[in-house]
Amino acid sequence: MLPPPAGGLVGLASVAVRVFAASYLLNTYGVNVSQAYGSSMIPTLATKGDVVLLDMSAPYRWRAAYRYGDRANTVLAVGDVVTLSKPTDRRVSIIKRIGGMPGDTVTVERPAGPPEVLTVPPGHVWVVGDNAAASIDCRYYGPVPAALLTGKVLCRIWPPSAVGTLPPAPVDAVGGREGETPPPPPTAPLDR
Q1: Is there a contact between 184 and 190 (Cβ–Cβ < 8 Å)?
Q2: Residue 139, SS3?
Q3: What's the pLDDT band for 190 if we cut at 50, 70, 90?
Q4: What radius of gyration, in Å, describes the C-alpha atoms of the chain?
Q5: How many CB atoms lie within 10 A of CB 33?
Q6: Of 40, 86, 135, 152, which is the active-site residue?
Q7: Is 48 a catalytic residue?
Q8: Ordered DSSP codes for 58-113
Q9: Which of 10, 21, 93, 128 has a CA that sits 20 to 30 A from residue 103's CA?
Q10: Rounded to whole angstroms, how far apart are CA atoms 130 and 117?
Q11: pTM to 2 decimal places
Q12: pLDDT tens profile 132-181
């Protein structure tokens, strides 16, 4: 057993505050783990149970570089899988793939009407689920403010049989191969 810190109760409180601060900084600006739920990222991530390692600093570094005019920074790019606060309920964290960066042109397939061509506005990103038929994403709520991005997926760490980097977007996903027509977005939210 470790001896109590010098200074008695005050010393113990000081150690506790430093441990809490270090833990907070690591989880907010360092790395973190998250479990993926929902069907929007199938086949890349399982409906329940895949655990991913997140770079929590990537969104901050990308926004800082973008703000200071470095539009060519590669901290975040089309194809990266990210976590973000859900635009319709900021208390909920979701996981999606970046389909467009500021200034990119995206084609949006809607259930009714012709395809719509949009340009992602400055300070926003276009995020999509790999399972377009079951994903509530930017086709549903439009471009997402970059401030909602919370992390970049570095790799999958669970289950052991699937440890490693995530595969690229499947062909039928929104943001997949050029010329492919994705299915329209669902009419009711399917992933939480």
Answers
A1: no
A2: helix
A3: very low
A4: 19
A5: 11
A6: 40
A7: no
A8: HHHHHHHHHHTT-TT--SS-TT-EEEEEETTEEEEEEEEEEEE-TT-EEEE--SSS
A9: 93
A10: 20
A11: 0.77
A12: 888 999 988 999 999 999 999 999 998 888 899 999 887 655 444 444 44
**SS3 at position 117:** strand
Whether the CB-CB separation of 77 and 98 falls below 8 Å is answered with: yes
What DSSP string runs through 10-64?
Answer: HHHHHHHHHHHHHHHHHHHHSEEEEEEESSTTTTTS-SEEEEEEEETTHHHHHHH
Our answer to whether residue 40 is catalytic in this structure is yes
- For residue 105, is pLDDT > 70? yes
Q: Dmax of the chain from CA atoms? A: 71
The C-alpha atoms of residue 142 and residue 140 are separated, in whole angstroms, by 6
Amino acid, single-letter form, for residue 33: V
- pLDDT-derived band of residue 27, with 50, 70 and 90 as boundaries? low
Considering the candidates 86, 96, 135, 152, report the single residue annotated as catalytic. Answer: 96
Name the residue among 20, 77, 27 with its Cα closest to residue 53.
27
Angle at 89 between CA 31 and CA 134, to 5 degrees: 85
Q: Tell me what the pLDDT averaged over the chain comes to.
A: 81
Which pairs with CB-CB distance under 8 Å and at least 24 residues apart come from 21-30? Answer: 27/56, 28/56, 29/56, 29/57, 29/60, 30/56, 30/57
